[in-house]
């Protein structure tokens, strides 16, 4: 998206910054240091910020659009790892309250966990709308749009 002219702030756990660097470099944009923006040929910007969901300090920027992919599953690989879902709910609800729209896409791996996530975020006043899957992807993939205000999903479907 930065190569198309968008200002992009990618977030992940701090230990995943090297993987982000590798992926951005493979796409023609090299981010040397966390928090530093690099310009693309179309005036887009790309930067990386560490974000541990649920941390006390949230991002200070205001975002028009948040794209999230594969955010709702959790392997629970360690008994000592805290479930990230409550923190993700806090971050997304906070960003939507500031006017952001979030689009979440993922494979449906844990339907009960996913349903719990959407119920909890809706309980915070966030509107959840699902884009209807195709017959081929029904029950396998979800696309959800989260917002605080009115957001007509047909607006995003007209362009493409």
UniProtKB/TrEMBL annotation:
This is Uncharacterized protein. It holds the Pfam family Methyltransf_16. InterPro entries: Methyltransf_16, SAM-dependent_MTases_sf. It comes from Rhodosorus marinus.
């Amino acid at each position: 998206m930065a190569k198309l002219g968008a200002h992009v702030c990618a977030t992940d756990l701090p230990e995943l910054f090297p993987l982000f660097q590798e992926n951005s470099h493979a796409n023609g944009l090299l981010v040397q240091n966390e928090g530093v923006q690099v310009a693309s040929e179309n005036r887009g910007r790309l930067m990386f910020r560490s974000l541990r969901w649920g941390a006390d300090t949230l991002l200070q920027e205001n975002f028009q659009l948040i794209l999230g992919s594969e955010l709702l599953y959790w392997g629970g690989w360690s008994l000592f790892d805290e479930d990230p879902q409550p923190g993700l709910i806090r971050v997304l609800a906070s960003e939507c309250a500031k006017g952001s729209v979030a689009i979440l896409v993922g494979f449906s791996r844990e339907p009960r966990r996913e349903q719990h996530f959407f119920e909890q975020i809706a309980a915070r006043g966030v509107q959840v709308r699902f884009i209807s899957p195709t017959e081929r992807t029904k029950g396998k993939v979800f696309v959800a749009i989260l917002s605080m205000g009115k957001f007509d999903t047909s607006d995003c479907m007209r362009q493409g």
